[in-house]
Amino acid sequence: MRVAAGLIFAGAVSLCLSGAAWSQTPAAKGTAAPPAAAAPAPAPAAAPAPAKAACANPDALSIGRVVEIDTTGGPGFGFEHFKQLDFLREKEVVLTFDDGPWPVNTPSILKTLADECTTGIFFIIGKHATYYPEILKQVSAAGHTIGSHTWSHATLTNKKLTEDQRKEEIEKGFSAVKWALGGKSPSPFFRFPALQHPPEMVTYLGTRNIAMFSCDLDSFDFKARNAQQVIDVTMNKLDKLGKGIILMHDFHKHTAEALPALLRKLKAGGYKVVQMKAKAPVQTLPQYDEMIVKDVKLPTVSDRPVSSVVQTISE
């Protein structure tokens, strides 16, 4: 099979086995040979690698393969718009979630993914990150890949936006995610709102070494009337394609409700989840980092949704 340029397949694959911990085998490192006259010293005992939490589900979907992405030059993924880097094998999927973080729905999705010992990519709206940094920290702590989905979900093909405003949407989005994660930079992974890719911004992301994500199939969960419709649309499309990057939204209730059954269907259908990681984090720009700090220093109720201010803790 052709290996796409710009991808380095990780040498270790996370597997979930009954009673076993998730682990990765560290690469062997060469050591200098001792002088010929020196008596060989006893080899020090290797420090055990920290074990990840064991998967409690013996029939979990798990992670089939881990790939590392070199984002130099801004590669594109997802056949809806980018057809060059076809790296998925048959029966492989990438789970992606847009528009979070959001109360109830994002934590529900995190629990479902944890129950199945699997993972996804979360494309975050910057404003939402500033509303709910504690939820975004949960996404990071669970080991999921985090990218950006602009600052305010503005459609970047909107002709009313200047080029500087479009760049600001991109850069403030990444800076907001970094701020919400306590200074930890996310991956240089970006998805355009409404999958609308203005050519000049595609070029700009290339200069910033940020990978662009479209999708292979859209679940259309934002149009769904119920959870079953999310499952049916996704599986019908996937069974026709045989593999793909799946677009979903952790912003929507029906997606969170559908995910447990959807992941079980993926498992039953022989599908494997591929985890995509970046070779290096995004390098945010200082002027936008400063802009975010200024914006969130004195948040007002008018800038935040009701659910960010008032939450029911007992009833």
Report on the structure:
The protein is of the alpha/beta class and 315 residues long. Strand 7, helix 5 and strand 8 (211-213) form a beta-alpha-beta unit. It is globular, with a radius of gyration of 21 Å. It has one domain (62-309): Glycoside hydrolase/deacetylase (TIM Barrel), CATH 3.20.20. It has helices at residues 105-115, 126-131, 133-141, 163-180, 199-207, 227-241, 253-268, 286-297, 306-309; strands spanning 7-9, 65-69, 76-77, 92-98, 121-124, 145-148, 189-190, 211-213, 217-218, 244-249, 272-278. Helix 6 crosses helix 7. Mean pLDDT is 85; it is low at 1-47. The N and C termini lie far apart (57 Å). Strands 1, 2, 4, 5, 6, 9, 10 and 11 form an 8-stranded mixed beta sheet that branches.
Topology:
Elements: E1 7-9, E2 65-69, E3 76-77, E4 92-98, H1 105-115, E5 121-124, H2 126-131, H3 133-141, E6 145-148, H4 163-180, E7 189-190, H5 199-207, E8 211-213, E9 217-218, H6 227-241, E10 244-249, H7 253-268, E11 272-278, H8 286-297, H9 306-309
Parallel strand pairs: 2-11, 3-8, 4-5, 4-10, 4-11, 5-6, 7-8, 9-10
Antiparallel strand pairs: 1-2
